[in-house]
Design brief:
The complex is a heterodimer of chains A (270) and B (207). With 270 residues, chain A is of the alpha+beta class. Helix content of chain A is 34%, strand content 21%. The two termini of chain A are 39 Å apart. Classes of the chains: A alpha+beta (270), B alpha/beta (207).
């Protein structure tokens, strides 16, 4: 294993480990993690520290007990979504919810007026009007929302709230393919606000997402497993993919076959 | 040498794989295309532009003859010599059933259920098995349904509203891979024997 830090602007090496005096103990840790030795490249440290990872697990958002459990922990699964909404000041929260409602109105037309409330125990909830055969419809809370609705609300909130780099895990999950097709342009619009562009990474297996023709070969990172470990490359730098992109194929057509498991149809022949 | 293969369903792709394994073991299959099955017609023209070895197999379906399909798909453009574009008379399944003895024994049905081989063009010596309707449907409706093996009957008989039997692919793929006798099949299908010939001659580096 190696740890290398390089200043690409000055083309100067800042760190190259392992160094002479290291032993198995020091090799257990990276310099990046330790404030005493990362002073020369602390920007990187802050960048990773600020980066948000989000993979909303709707079942956990629904479970009020899990909210209490997760209250003070790092939150990867969106359990604290409601808590984060709670900590946002009311004016900002209302303006975010207004945006979210406008979009939900189109994606989930039966659900109206998603609002934020706090119950008598002090636990935050989302509440909305579900329209059905009764003239007035019925009030629903997040426990009754569908998985897709919860994921969509969570992603939109995460994209609206904050400016740091964000990693979204498979945003296509639980959503109708017609909605999934809109995700690339939707994120493109959401990440550009107030004259700034927020860096968003998504991981995906979705043909629908990748068939969007606006996705570039230089912004698609392809992970190709090999015996030497997984190779990470820009799509445009992989010759086998580039020749298909040049012939006019979409990212989905050019990339998915390259990363598909070899002989996958043999799954059927057990 | 690496080659990418194109077929619109698993059966077609498995046929290409078997042909390459049998006749051109020097070719290494790299990618299996397209990423999503279905109609390959709009993609076929783009494969022509890729300029690296690709073998595509498609069904003649309702076209009268291969040249009319090629003309309809490609118009006046010329096929890239690295692009081995082949058409199965009827469907890929026709090539499988063209191995009359092997196929009927495997599916446990009477050999006479497979229609006779017909001369299509006497002058050019073109012959094929002509099915009265879509060969894959004929396979399920007339041949598999008459099987003496209950598994074959259930695997191939579609549920209401389904287009294929529930285990259509997983039953047929092992046949293609290990049982299908290509030499016997080629005796009943010019489109197959010509494909084998083109595959043997295929040399994308020295067109």
């Amino acid at each position: 294993m190696e740890e290398k830090v390089k200043n690409l602007k000055l083309n100067k090496e800042i760190l190259h480990r392992p160094q002479k005096d290291e032993d198995t103990e020091t090799l257990k840790f990276t310099y990046l993690e330790q404030p005493t030795v990362n002073a020369n490249f602390r920007d990187i440290y802050f960048f990773f520290q600020d980066t948000q990872y989000l993979n909303i697990v709707p079942q956990l958002v629904r479970d009020a007990d899990s909210y209490l459990l997760a209250a003070n922990k790092e939150d990867f699964y969106g359990r604290n979504l409601l808590d984060r909404m709670n900590k946002t000041n009311k004016k900002t929260r209302d303006s975010y919810l207004k945006r979210i409602n406008e979009i939900l109105q189109i994606a989930v037309p039966q659900l109206k007026n998603v609002d934020f409330i706090i119950d008598e125990k002090g636990v935050p909830h989302l509440e909305a009007l579900y329209q059905h055969w009764r003239a007035k419809g019925a009030k629903q809370q997040e426990a009754q929302f569908s998985d897709g609705t919860l994921r969509l609300i969570g992603f939109m909130w995460a994209l609206l709230d904050g400016q740091e780099t964000i990693l979204l895990e498979e945003p296509e999950l639980y959503l109708h393919s017609a909605i999934v097709k809109q995700i690339p342009e939707f994120i493109y619009k959401m990440q550009r606000r107030k004259g700034r562009i927020r860096q968003v990474f998504i991981s995906t297996h979705s043909y629908d997402i990748l068939s969007n023709e606006g996705i570039g070969g230089d912004e698609t990172i392809v992970l190709i497993p090999s015996t030497e470990g997984t190779k990470v490359n820009k799509a445009i730098d992989v010759e086998d993919i580039k020749k298909y992109l040049d012939a006019g194929f979409s990212i989905a057509e050019a990339v998915i076959p390259k990363v598909a498991p070899v002989n996958i149809q043999q799954m059927l022949e057990f | 040498m690496k080659i990418d293969i194109v077929g619109e369903d698993d059966v077609t792709r498995a046929i290409i794989e078997r042909l390459i394994e049998e006749y051109r073991p020097d070719l290494i299959i790299d990618k299996v295309l397209p990423a999503r099955g279905g109609h390959i017609k709009p993609l076929a023209v783009k494969y022509n532009l890729v300029n690296s070895p690709i073998m595509l197999l498609t069904d003649l379906d309702t076209y009268d003859c291969p040249p009319s399909l090629i003309h309809d798909w490609f118009g006046p453009s010329i096929l890239n010599p690295k692009y081995l574009f082949r058409i199965a008379y009827g469907e890929g399944e026709s090539w499988l059933m063209a191995d009359r003895v092997g196929f009927s024994a495997w599916i446990h049905s009477d050999i006479h259920l497979i229609p006779p081989t017909t001369i299509i063009d006497k002058r050019r010596n073109i012959f094929e098995i002509v099915f009265p309707y879509k060969p894959s449907l004929y396979l399920m409706r007339e041949i598999a349904s008459a099987s003496r093996n209950i598994e074959m009957r259930t695997n191939f008989s579609p549920r209401t509203g389904a287009k294929r039997g529930p285990l259509y692919n997983s039953t047929l793929l092992p046949f293609i891979r290990s049982t299908w006798n290509i030499v016997n099949a080629a005796r009943n299908s010019t489109s197959l024997s010509k494909t084998i010939q083109r595959l043997l001659e295929f040399s994308p580096d020295n067109p």
